[in-house]
């Protein structure tokens, strides 16, 4: 009995480590911490993310399937580059999907949804702390969780996955200079504004905020 319990516990820890490493790797890619065109070995990334090489390899293979990295045999993984045209296409996808869906959530959410929306304030606080610490991996991890949790209220998991992939493919340059200059603050505050617009049932305001928010990806964020 104790052996089975131990095995289950160990498996849970491994899954937790893999999920953490995968989330941090994705955030590092999106935030530009891992440079396009650069090749990284699994052991080097494992040391960087305080992990063993196995969960790093597993996470990077998932990222390869998503087109974010490519396998370099006997060496590691090369970070793929994203062109300006691709960034424009990804931003268009997000505008077409997120703006009306977030408007629907603001207009039609239930009382239970409102309770879930209020809990998203903890993620905004996490973004503020990460911004103050210039920790862009933590910032983008909380940012992704915020947006996917919000979109989940619409009830279409396929849409959530499409938006998540579009967000992850929208590589950004190094955001640390923006954080140091206080230029991420406006984006962080927009998350609070989304929460308030949703709770107020204000569809028009929500759609305006979301459109402006996505615009950062092709504006100052992309040219940092």
Automatic annotation (TrEMBL):
Native organism taxonomy: Bacteria, Bacillati, Actinomycetota, Actinomycetes, Micrococcales
Domain of life: Bacteria
GO MF terms held by the record: DNA binding; DNA-binding transcription factor activity
Keyword annotations of the record: DNA-binding, Transcription, Transcription regulation
Boundaries of every HTH gntR-type domain copy: 15-82
Name the record gives this protein: GntR family transcriptional regulator
Gene3D superfamilies registered for this protein in UniProt: GntR ligand-binding domain-like, Winged helix-like DNA-binding domain superfamily/Winged helix DNA-binding domain
Organism of origin: Pseudoclavibacter terrae
Cited SUPFAM superfamilies: GntR ligand-binding domain-like (SSF48008), Winged helix' DNA-binding domain (SSF46785)
Classification via PROSITE patterns: HTH_GNTR (PS50949)
């Amino acid at each position: 009995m104790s052996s089975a319990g131990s095995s289950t516990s160990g498996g849970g820890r491994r899954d937790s480590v893999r999920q953490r490493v995968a989330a941090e790797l994705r955030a590092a890619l999106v935030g530009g911490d891992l440079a396009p065109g650069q090749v990284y070995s699994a052991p080097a990334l494992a040391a960087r993310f305080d992990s063993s090489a196995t969960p790093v390899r597993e996470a990077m293979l998932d990222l390869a399937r998503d087109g974010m990295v490519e396998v370099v045999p006997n060496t590691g993984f090369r970070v793929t580059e994203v062109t300006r045209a691709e960034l424009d296409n990804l931003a268009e996808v997000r505008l077409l999907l997120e703006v009306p869906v977030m408007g629907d959530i603001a207009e039609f959410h239930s009382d239970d949804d409102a309770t879930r929306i209020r809990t998203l304030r903890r993620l905004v606080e996490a973004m503020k702390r990460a911004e103050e610490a210039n920790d862009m991996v933590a910032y983008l991890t909380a940012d992704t969780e915020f947006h996917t949790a919000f979109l989940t209220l619409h009830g279409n998991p396929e849409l959530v996955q499409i938006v998540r992939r579009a967000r992850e493919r929208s590589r950004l340059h190094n955001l640390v200079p923006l954080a140091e200059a206080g230029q991420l603050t406006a984006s962080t505050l927009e998350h609070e504004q989304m929460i308030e617009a949703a709770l107020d049932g204000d569809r028009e305001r929500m759609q305006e905020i979301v459109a402006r928010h996505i615009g950062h990806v092709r504006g100052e964020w992309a040219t940092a």
